[in-house]
């Protein structure tokens, strides 16, 4: 399951980030999206992008295309 699959008010644990671009992985991890952290989806825009999330005390809006690379576990 990926972050793009979660619906509003769902919570999961970040299992990993898999993307061929190491710069994107670094940027996402710098925002606080680190494996082992709980992530909640607060809202999804009407066209599905962006996705508003909460990790710890941080609110992050992420594009759906990037959310597909964030692997989750329940």
From TrEMBL:
Coiled-coil regions, chain positions: none
Annotated InterPro entries: Fe-transptr_FeoA-like, FeoA, FeoA_core_dom, Transcriptional_repressor_C
Domain Ferrous iron transporter FeoA-like: 1-74
UniProt KW ATP-binding keyword: no
SUPFAM superfamilies, per the entry: C-terminal domain of transcriptional repressors
Keyword entries, A-Z: Iron
GO MF term list: transition metal ion binding
Protein name in UniProt: Ferrous iron transport protein A
């Amino acid at each position: 399951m990926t972050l793009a699959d979660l619906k509003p008010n769902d919570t999961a644990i970040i299992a990993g980030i898999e993307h061929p671009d190491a710069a994107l992985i670094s940027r996402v991890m710098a925002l606080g999206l680190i494996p082992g952290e709980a992530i909640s989806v607060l809202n999804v825009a009407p066209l599905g992008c962006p996705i508003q999330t909460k990790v710890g005390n941080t609110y992050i809006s992420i594009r759906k295309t990037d959310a597909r690379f964030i692997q989750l576990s329940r």
